[in-house]
Amino acid sequence: MKKAVKITDGIFRLGSNIENGDFFEGMWPIPDGVSLNSYIVKGDKIALIDLVDDWDNAPSDLKEQLESIPVDPSEIDYLILNHLEPDHTGWLEDFLKAAPSVELVTNKKGAALIEGFYGITDNVKVIDSGDTIDLGQGKNLEFHNIPNVHWPETMITFEKNSGVLFSCDAFGSYGSIGDSVFDDEISEEEHNLFDVESLRYYANIVGSFSKFVLRAIDKLSDFDIKVIAPSHGIIWRDNPGEIIERYRKFASYLEGPAEEEITVIWGSMYGNTEKVLHSVIKGIRSEGVPVHVHKVPEVNVSWPLASAWKSKGLVFGMPTYEYKMFPPIAAVLNMFSLKHVQNKTVFRFGSYGWSGGAQKDFDAATADMKWDFIDPVEWKGKASEEVHQLAFERGAELARSIKNQ
User: Fold this and answer.
1) Of 42, 59, 201, 222, which residue is least crowded by CB atoms under 10 Å?
2) φ/ψ bin of 335: left (φ > 0), alpha (ψ from -120 to 50), beta (otherwise)
3) pLDDT tens for residues 53-67?
4) Pick the CATH number of 5-253 from 3.90.226.10, 3.60.15.10, 3.40.1380.10, 3.40.50.300
5) For the chain, which residues make up each domain, given as ranges?
6) What's the rounded mean pLDDT across residues 307-326?
7) Stated pTM of the model
8) Separation of alpha carbons 162 and 13, rounded Å
9) CA 21 to CA 115: how far, in whole Å?
């Protein structure tokens, strides 16, 4: 039987890993899985904080862990819904069959989403920032809205006496959780994985809302937080400040400064652009600047998005395709625009055949992205030695420019 994990007296983590190869939000690869975390807070009354989707056996995992405490769903008085995205609520209708009298607790915008997604209006308790629910036996839940981290209705739940913050998507990460769920229990290798995957999760899921993330972090400065219990990823009880500061850094990349690194995203039809790619990379490395290289469409945009989010400099290498940009690069730029990848210094290079067109298309697609550009390099057909030398110099120029920012 899968057992619930005790966080402190009367507070337990219930978790399930999604490892079936599905994409998160239907588009983000999760090769190392992702955890769905729910929590039980037991006083005289019982609250379940956040639910799961009917996804990869998650409801069965949750039911088994409830039995281990033991708590029968019918005994649960409150279901706290910090966020209505279906990975936290998709199992709601079936759960209510086992817990028909449970009161759903959310804010005004959350209540509208409960009705919109599930047609449910009964037994919904609407709360506002600062409201509390006393469960008895020293368990008192306090609610605070943190809008747009990452949907407008998102809120957090804080149990003051224990200092446990149930932060929902805030401070989360991709990556499955094994038997060890706390930051002080996992290995250095696992910490490295969650370090990398928290950035990719942030860039993919939360990055667009970075201004709201910073507001939420400022709001939390008044809280005496001892444990951060997110809906995805490990629980931070030894050093909760680490994940808070990591998220503050990620959010700061929106306006800059970002890291002194360059992300190269490229695609090539017949190899003429690819050959010049190597000259550009040599130029960047001649200045000692770290460079991250992603080839599309072979790699999902999830990884270049995370890499670009933290880099000061970007390079796009692509040929002209039917008078426009190489389509896989156009798709990347569309996602970067959606996710607000802003305040970068950018260089573009690429070949063309009968005529150009990619640069004009690139200029139009990036006009509103708050990017600074250095002069592009384009050539017809096979690149000459002069083109290779110019590409090397442009790579070095980009590297020098981000070092001087």
Assistant:
1) 222
2) alpha
3) 999 999 999 999 999
4) 3.60.15.10
5) 5-253, 259-403
6) 98
7) 0.96
8) 14
9) 30
Domain 259-403: give its CATH code. Answer: 3.40.50.360
pLDDT of residue 1: 72
d(CA 107, CA 279): 55
Between CA 306 and CA 121 the distance in angstroms is 39
What are the angstrom distances between the C-alpha of 379 and each of 94, 209, 318, 320, 360?
A: 61, 39, 11, 10, 14
3-state secondary structure 250-268: HHHCCCCCCEEEEEEEECC
Q: Which amino acid is at 131?
A: D
Q: Which residues contact 200 (CB under 8 A, 6 or more apart)?
A: 28, 174, 302, 303, 305, 306
Distance between CA atoms of residues 15 and 58, nearest Å? 8
CA pair distance 108, 128, nearest whole angstrom: 8
The per-residue pLDDT for range 239-274, each reduced to its tens digit, is: 999 999 999 999 999 998 899 999 999 999 999 999
